[in-house]
Amino acid sequence: MLILGLDPGTRVVGYGLVEALGSRLRLVAAGVLTAPASDPVEQRLAKIAKGLSGIVLDHRPEVAAVEDVFVRDDPRAALVVGQGRGALLAVLGEHGIPVRSYPPASVKRAVAGNGRAAKEQVSRMVAAILGARGPLGPLDATDALAVAIAHSLWTTSQLLTEKRLTQASPSHGSGGLHWRATRHGKEQS
């Protein structure tokens, strides 16, 4: 599965593509899309959207994992990042790519073991997970790779849980109940 991870913004957007090969992860590409701060927001968003569209056309990811907007002390900053996130979602929707969203603390916890990990710590862990000897680019790019890695880990975990539930489901012969795991819970047959 080819996963596109995105760290949204209106001036800088981190992106990272990771291929999940069973339990192994392979780095495909990572970088940043940028737009000049001096440009009006609508022009910045258009440039970023065009750049993302090019990445999607070049790599054809199967799913996108996007970091949620985090509101702390500055609601205005959250609103601005939300505008950037919306532009990314529109591009992904236009290309028919399913999107999963993850809170920043959950991504950090999945990759670094700590929901409050510093960006530098996340960057080091991303490099270690992907088998890199050094940094994999700007922090925005490694944040995007972290989102893609987290999605892969949660998807693998979910599939393993479903498999265990299916294998452990009781079957009581003819007329008995048989439960099997589905994506949305248990289904009786």
Protein described:
The longest helix is centred in the last third of the chain and has 30 residues, at 139-168. The protein is built from five helices and seven strands, in the order E-E-E-H-E-H-E-H-H-H-E-E. It is globular. The protein is α/β, with parallel strands linked by helices and 189 residues long.
Helix content: 40-55%
> What Rg is obtained from the alpha carbons, in whole angstroms?
19 Å
By CATH, the architecture is named 2-Layer Sandwich
Q: Count of helical segments?
A: 5
Low-confidence segments? 171-189
CATH superfamily label: Ribonuclease H-like superfamily/Ribonuclease H
Determine and state the CATH class: Alpha Beta
- Summarize the biggest pleated sheet: 5 strands, mixed
Using DSSP, what is the number of strands? 7
CATH topology value: Nucleotidyltransferase, domain 5
| Strand percentage | 15-25%
Domain count, please report it.
1
Question: Helix- and strand-based class?
Answer: alpha/beta
Question: Strands across the major sheet, in which order?
Answer: 3-2-1-4-5
Mean pLDDT rating:
86
Q: Give the termini separation.
A: 31 Å
Order of helices and strands: EEEHEHEHHHEE
* Overall geometry: globular
Fold blueprint:
Blueprint: E1 2-7, E2 12-21, E3 24-34, H1 41-59, E4 63-67, H2 75-94, E5 99-102, H3 104-112, H4 119-129, H5 139-168, E6 179-182, E7 185-188
Parallel strand pairs: 1-4, 4-5
Antiparallel strand pairs: 1-2, 2-3, 6-7
Helix pairs in contact: 1-2, 3-5, 4-5
Concise overview:
With 189 residues, the protein is an alpha/beta fold.
